[in-house]
Amino acid sequence: MFSFGSLRPYHAVDPGPLKNARLLEPLGYFNIQLGYVLGMGTEIGFDLLRS
To answer: Which of 3, 16, 26, 41 could be cross-linked to 9 through a Cys-Cys bond (beta carbons 3.0 to 4.6 Å apart)?
Structure first.
């Protein structure tokens, strides 16, 4: 578990084998698109929710 300053703590998630990186990379590009191109800023991100 780790945190970024005053943000809530984060838990690392193992994405599995390296071939899964091809699934995570578009999510990163989408985050950049939202933050910089669409002007939502750099304080945004995604959260994995478990039920």
So the answer is: 3
